[in-house]
Amino acid sequence: MYFPPDFDKERAIELGKLVKQAYQRFEDFKNNKPWKIKDGYTLVCEVSYRTVLSFDANDDGSGQTAIDREMATVAATDPVSFGLEEMIYKDVPMGFVATKDKTAYLVFRGTVTPREWIFDANIKMQAYRLANFGKVSDGFQNIYRRCRESFIKPLNGLASDFPLFISGHSLGGALSLLSLPDVIKSTHFKSPTLYNFGCPRVGDAIFGRAYDSLPDQKTFRVVNTSDLVTSIPLPVEIPVLPSGYYTHVGQPVDFAFQGNSLGLNHTMDTYIAELEK
Fold first, then answer.
1. Domains in the chain: how many in total?
2. In a domain? residue 3
3. Which of 68, 31, 41, 2 is nearest to 220 (CA)?
4. Is 75 helix (H, G, I), strand (E, B) or coil?
5. Residue 51: φ, ψ to 5°
6. Among 29, 77, 90, 99, which has the minimal tally of Cβ within 10 Å of its Cβ?
7. Is residue 89 part of a domain?
8. Range(s) of the domain holding residue 267
């Protein structure tokens, strides 16, 4: 594995393990178990998005009790009037902000629910939330838009002299890339460092150039060359995408691991194990 000069292997391993904690947070949420951040980190806030509870308890992996379809349909139209807002909506954990040793961390997990897979599969583009940044995946930005308010204000509540590290895996890697320009614009953290793992392409060539031109940020994409997720969406022009093709951003940090399984080639455990060699 080749490491660029500024790449910190131990930091990458640390961030990978934080992503694992974000996955565990969702598992505990799904199973209605208490969760506490480990390894000496202090939880600042959870990164989450609000969703309507599933009619089928197994539909979105939330583990919540199914509710009557007709009542849900009516109540979702005006849940406050029906006094059912807390019954209908649930905050789904997507990651967290944490601190340790005067360092801040913004961490995103990857896809775990069918609804998130549906968002992932949406390769149409929409304008990125900042001007002159081209277009990004409609599905990824829709999830990002739903969870950004949960962490922007808490980040601004942290000491401005803390270094900020951003990380994510898979869908979480895409969210980490969408967050970095926004964090620079919307918070006092102007020089974040990002390490992500198994990240798909997120935006068009205009987004890529604008992102890579941001001063004082560092972005490292840890990539298993056998991981199919890192190859999508394809870097070719698609007729439904008038803005052109998808492209990667940041510095790639490649390794080759073939586990003869799409899942094993992509799992966070594989990325951590390869970094620890």
1. 1
2. no
3. 2
4. helix
5. -135, 160
6. 77
7. yes
8. 9-275
DSSP per position, 113-181:
SHHHHHHHT---EEE-SSTTS-EEEHHHHHHHHHHGGGTHHHHHTS-TTS-EEEEEETHHHHHHHHHHH
pTM for the structure as a whole: 0.84
Query: What CATH number is given to the structural domain containing 258?
Result: 3.40.50.1820
How far is it, in rounded angstroms, from Cα 221 to Cα 168? 10
The full length of the chain comes to: 277
Whether residue 223 is contained in a domain is answered as yes
List the alpha helices (DSSP H) in 4-151.
Answer: 9-30, 69-77, 85-88, 114-120, 138-147
pLDDT tens-digit map of 78-120: 444 444 444 456 899 999 999 999 999 999 999 875 454 444 4
Q: Is 261 exposed, middle or buried (0-12, 13-18, 19+ CB in 10 A)?
A: exposed
Edge to edge, what strands does the sheet with 251-255 contain?
Answer: 42-52, 89-100, 103-108, 164-169, 193-197, 218-224, 251-255
Report the C-alpha gap between 63 and 209 in whole angstroms: 41
- Output the six-digit token pair for 172: 């979480």
Nearest to 168 by CA among 112, 124, 129, 233: 112
- pLDDT per residue over 63-79, tens digit each? 333 333 333 444 444 44
**Helix or strand holding residue 206 (H, E):** helix 205-212
Window from 11-15, 49-53, 196-200, 216-220 with minimum mean pLDDT: 49-53
3-class DSSP state of 99 = strand
Using alpha carbons only, give the angle 8, 211, 157 rounded to the nearest 5 degrees.
Answer: 70
Assess if residue 2 is contained within a domain: no
What does residue 87 show for φ and ψ, rounded to 5 degrees? -80, -30
